[in-house]
Each structure stands twice: as structure tokens, then as C-alpha cells.
TrEMBL record, chains A, B:
This is Redox-sensing transcriptional repressor Rex. Belongs to the transcriptional regulatory Rex family. Residues 28-67 bind DNA. Residues 91-192 form the CoA-binding domain. Modulates transcription in response to changes in cellular NADH/NAD(+) redox state. GO terms for biological process: negative regulation of DNA-templated transcription; response to redox state. It comes from Streptomyces oceani. GO terms for cellular component: cytoplasm.
Amino acid sequence: MATDRTHRPATSTRSRGIPEATVARLPVYLRALTALSERSVPTVSSEELASAAGVNSAKLRKDFSYLGSYGTRGVGYDVEYLVYQISRELGLTQDWPVVIVGIGNLGAALANYGGFASRGFRVAALIDADPAMAGRPVAGIPVQHTDALEKIISDNGVSIGVIATPAGSAQQVCDRLVQAGVTSILNFAPTVLSVPEGVDVRKVDLSIELQILAFHEQRKAGEDILPEGVIPDDETEPPVAPPADTVTKRPDPGSDGDRPAVMPA
Amino acid sequence: MATDRTHRPATSTRSRGIPEATVARLPVYLRALTALSERSVPTVSSEELASAAGVNSAKLRKDFSYLGSYGTRGVGYDVEYLVYQISRELGLTQDWPVVIVGIGNLGAALANYGGFASRGFRVAALIDADPAMAGRPVAGIPVQHTDALEKIISDNGVSIGVIATPAGSAQQVCDRLVQAGVTSILNFAPTVLSVPEGVDVRKVDLSIELQILAFHEQRKAGEDILPEGVIPDDETEPPVAPPADTVTKRPDPGSDGDRPAVMPA
DNA sequence: ATGCCTTTGTGAACGCGTGCACAAAGATGA
DNA sequence: TCATCTTTGTGCACGCGTTCACAAAGGCAT
Ligand SMILES: NC(=O)c1ccc[n+]([C@@H]2O[C@H](COP(=O)([O-])OP(=O)(O)OC[C@H]3O[C@@H](n4cnc5c(N)ncnc54)[C@H](O)[C@@H]3O)[C@@H](O)[C@H]2O)c1
Ligand SMILES: NC(=O)c1ccc[n+]([C@@H]2O[C@H](COP(=O)([O-])OP(=O)(O)OC[C@H]3O[C@@H](n4cnc5c(N)ncnc54)[C@H](O)[C@@H]3O)[C@@H](O)[C@H]2O)c1
């Protein structure tokens, strides 16, 4: 998963009784169900659907139980009916205008993404700070300048924004989006966005995903070489030099009023 | 979070003692630490770093405790040293050749992504099935035809592959990658990939992210209308038409194998 | 009707992840 | 050397999420 709910530990967790983990799986079920629907399959068992969605059947049944009892024992679930129920639960029965800010390589790719409009999401506008891009159509939609951001959000009643600007501009763009009324943000920039309570932020970070894969990859390689648990589990320091001379202990306990240590927020 | 570890419940979970949740946060810490390092900040307290990374300080300290005791009580953590330790733990001290398959809108954007090479990841090759793209340089790297996939993987010792092909081709491409020796896959196609044990798959799914945001967005809207907690916490059916007339309870307990209810998307 | 067979819905147990709160460690200054 | 102050490292408790296992429900055939 490239995303990761930013904050709201207790709040969103109990979102109306449906566990967050379940909410995250509903789209997956929906996709599988839609495929079945297109093949005119009338019903599916939890086992079959779970297999298609790549999850445990008990988990799937429990997930559905949060929505209500929509299955028929001995038979399974009605595909069409379930598609509707999940769509409704996810809020997909209504139209969600979305704005994409930062129409560079990624932003343009997102704008061209077909799966975007396929489920109730509509690209209401493409916004970029580069004056040279203003008016230029991308994916059939003319790019508008950042100056119009607030008006666009307001006029279209946009509540979901996608940030695809460089990291340095992300927080600033985020602030403007939130100020203008956006309450859900999908962030592709490699930055931790800080938003006021009530605003949801999900992030997609390619770099993080690769690093997580690298971690496991390294483990696999390590295990191949060291099938035995040679040194128990403590190769922590041996490899490199622990804090000693490098930069760590700068010899000067005195005043040093210049470099104000860290002092972040 | 747009990604989501596909399977391996017990296996990867206890990866060498470091919890999966911690592994997923290490890249975030690393990014914050790198920024501090560039500003020549020598040390940080867990509180400051946690704030920059957007997490709880206790969580951060516990995360670091899995790597060893690298902090100094009363002072904090040595930035440079921690950058090194985390990099090593994530396997970033080595070079990871990566191949991107499917050089369309998204694949091209990924190829152009600078943050790619910044941390030990190197785009070893760009692969596409379209003969017309063969040889065409994208981000300075010539696109190669799918026919050469196996040889490319093998020659470069690639163990990480990125799939950016249409959903329909994803599983097939995945199979070839795995067959050729890739053991970690980052999948951007909206499909559930099935892979043999030992292969890691992480997925990035824009559509799912938006749907999750829509769910919460819908809740927010609903709460605005119903400020009071009228019915305690069980508005499961009241809000919307429960199985009754709409399409819900198709009035006919008998057969009726035809057109079920609504079917939105 | 009745019994069999399939599949749901969920109680209960378990494990992971989170966050509090604090003892211990170590730096700093007298 | 000793007291004080800061910040780490972690024991502990709690809640969410996962999975097992099974009773109950319902379809279907006889
Ligand atoms: N390209 C990828 O595959 C990829 C992958 C992961 C993450 N990202 C991240 O996504 C973001 C965009 O990547 P990219 O490759 O498209 O970069 P890019 O440089 O091609 O595009 C960035 C665009 O944002 C615009 N922009 C800059 N500041 C702005 C502002 N304040 N308001 C509005 N628009 C502004 C620029 O004019 C430009 O068009 C970056 O943060 C990058 O790290 C990209
Ligand atoms: N564009 C986005 O923003 C975006 C967002 C989320 C998900 N996705 C997904 O990413 C994938 C790619 O999206 P896109 O917009 O770049 O599509 P695209 O059609 O622009 O590009 C797909 C590319 O894959 C190549 N391809 C097809 N079959 C192949 C095969 N068997 N082997 C190698 N290459 C093959 C095609 O030649 C084409 O160049 C799709 O699955 C899409 O659903 C895209």
C-alpha cells in the first residue's frame, strides 16, 4: 500500500461503525464484483469473491456484515445488489468533482487516467502554476492557472483535491486547497502535509514503496546467504562506527548561539 | 496510503524482528532526517523528528528501538548516524536495479521521476510491448521491447519490477517478471496479482484511494446534516432505504432470476 | 413436508500496533 | 563529585484487525 492514512487515530477509525480496514477493502471487492457483473454472473460465494479479491473469505464475510446481511445462506451474495450496496456505502452513487494541482509528468498522467471518471469521479479542473501551461489542453481539459484555484473549488463545489506538484510547493498548495474548502486530499508529493482537523489526507509515495520492497528484498538475500542463525540477531553496530567522531560530538559545550540546534515546529 | 501489502500475513510481519508497520515508517523518518542533514543539524530529539514525520514521538522511539539503541538520553539522536543506520536497515546502501514495464502515460512519468534514482534505485530498463516504442528514448533511456524482458532481468540482476501496463496485461507481465527472477513487484495496474510465495507485491491504486476519500467525505457531509447523535450509533439502515422497495427487496421470494436491482457503476 | 447439504454470519481467541507513563541514562553545570 | 534536568527506551494496557470454527439459515431434492 502506497497510501497511509495520515492521522485521525480514533476519529476515522470508528467511522460510523465500519472499520477503516474494511473501508479500504470495499473498493477491491467492488472491482471484483463489477467484473463479475459484466460477465453476468448472478451470485458469488464469499469463497469465490474472496479469492478474486485476494483476501480471506472469513474476512470478507465479516466486512460485508458491517454493511448488513446481504447474503443468502447456502447460496452466496447477489452480485448486482452487492455492487449497489457497496457503491452506496462508498458514496459512489454521487458525483465527486476533483481538481488536480500540478500538471507535470505525473499530473498529466493522472489527468489521462481513464479509471478516474469510471466511478463517479470527475476531473473538474487541472491547475498549474506555470503560466506557459495556462489554456493548454491536457486530456481534453484546459489547464488553468493557480490564481483561479479558489474560484474553481468554490464554483464547482470541489471537496477532493489531488496534489502532484513538487514537494516544495505541496504544503502551500494544500493550504490553499483547504482554505478554499477542500476536505480530502490525495498527495503524490513526498511531503508530510499538515492539515486542520476534519481534513483527510492520503498519500501515494513511490519512493517509500520501493524502499519497503528493498527492505524485504534485502532480507530475502540475507537469508539465502545465512541459512543458519549465525550471530543471533545483533549485527547492529559491528558494520559501522557508532557515534564517536564523525560529526556527533562537536567539542564545544559553550554558548554557540548561532546554529540553533534543531528547533522545528 | 495507496499501497497495501498484498499478502504474506505471518511471514513478512515478523521480518527479522522489525514490525511491518515500523518498516513502512522508516522511509518517512529517513526523508525527514535527510532534510535535517542537509541543513547540517547534528542531532534531533524524538519529539522534533516525530513532529517532522507526522507521528507520535513514543512510536518513533519504539520504532528506533527495533534498530538498536542509537539515541543519547538527554540529547537525542545523531542525525548522520541515524541516516546511515536506517539506510542500511532498508537496504539502501546497495544499488537496486529496477525495470519499469508499460511505458505509457504513467510509466513515462515514473521513468522521469527524479526521486527514483535518489536513493539507491536505478532504472535499469524501460520495457513496452508496443513495437513502435522500441528504441524511443524516455527520460534518456531507450525503451526496449517485451521480448527482451527475460534477458534484461537476468543480465542486470534485477529483483524489483514496476508494472504500469493496462490491467489486462498485468498478471501476464507479472508472471514473466517472476519467472525471470524478479521477487519484488510494485503494481500500478488495478488488478490483484497472484504470485508464488516469496514474491512481494505492493500496489498503488489511485482509484481505491479516491474511493476511500469519498467514503469519508460522504460521512462528513452526512454528519453536517445530522449534528446530533440522534440514533446512538446505528443508523445503518435508517439513512438510506433499507431493503424495501427501491431495488432492495425485490418483491418475490420465489424465482426471479432476471434483472436484479440497481447496478450503478 | 422433511432431511440434507451448502454457505452465511458471528462469537471468541489471538496477535499486532499504538500510546501512556515512567524509570533509568546521560549530559550539563555548580 | 554531585545534583539537576532532559530525553531515551520500554513495560503495560488497550483497541483494532484477523482468523478459526461453528451454529443457524436457507435452498433443494425427494
Ligand atoms: N513522476 C512520478 O512518477 C512521480 C512519482 C512519485 C511521486 N512524484 C511526485 O509527484 C510530484 C510531481 O511529479 P512530476 O514528475 O509530475 O513533476 P513535474 O516537475 O513534471 O511537475 C510538477 C508540476 O507542478 C507545477 N507546479 C509547481 N509549483 C506549483 C504550484 N505551487 N501550484 C501549482 N502547480 C505547481 C509545475 O509547473 C509542474 O508543471 C513531485 O512531488 C514528485 O516527487 C512523482
Ligand atoms: N495514468 C495514471 O495516472 C494511472 C493511475 C492509476 C493507475 N494507472 C494504471 O496504470 C496502468 C498504466 O496506465 P497508463 O495511463 O500509463 O496507460 P497507457 O495505456 O498510457 O500505457 C500502457 C502502456 O503499457 C504498454 N503495454 C501494454 N501491454 C503490455 C505488455 N503486455 N507488456 C508491456 N507493455 C505493455 C502499452 O504499450 C502502453 O505503452 C494502467 O493499468 C492504469 O490503470 C494509471
